[in-house]
Amino acid sequence: MQNEIIAYREENHDQLVDIWQRAVRRTHTFLSEEDIQFYHHIVGNGILRELEVWMEWNTSQEPTGFIGLDGLKIEMLFVDPERHGQGIGSRLIQHAEKIKGKHLKVDVNEQNEKAYAFYRHYGFVQTGRSALDGSGRAFPLLHMELNK
Fold first, then answer.
1. Of 5, 8, 30, 63, which has the fewest beta carbons less than 10 angstroms from its beta carbon?
2. 126 and 142 in contact (C-beta within 8 Å)?
3. Quick check: 3 pLDDT over 90?
């Protein structure tokens, strides 16, 4: 049985928060510990329940990554850092395309060059920039749209 993509399950909430935290620590090196704790509070205390979340589920019935959608916008995409480069992020975006269409959007931290390169490789193009993130903090965002 191959990995499959399934809808969010409340019983997996803590596992997804753990994936988020480990991935952020690996990829968001521009964040301070205080910043990580600020965002951890948001992720751990409800944002996953407010988004349409899909998880890639491995053969051991554990999540390996997840995508959070708000309409056509990818609000979050995080993969277990031990599984980076295995196609999980691409499969999650493909799933989003399948259910939402090819007009997906995403905001990427400007300092997260690997994420920016990942989305560009997938076919997203930059359409704008904001000096502040969605929480009003000075972490510039690059606005991107899928262009296939």
1. 30
2. yes
3. no
Give the whole-angstrom CA distance, residue 97 versus residue 104: 7
| Beta bridge pairs of residue 107 | 143
Which pLDDT does position 2 carry in this prediction?
65
Judge whether 43 and 17 are in contact, CB under 8 Å: yes
Beta-carbon count within 10 A of 147 CB:
13
pTM: 0.93
One DSSP character per residue, 3-66 reads -EEEE--GGGHHHHHHHHHHHHHHH-TTS-HHHHHHHHHHIIIIIHHHSEEEEEE-TTS-EEEE
- 72's CB contacts (< 8 A; 6+ apart) are 100, 101, 103, 104, 105
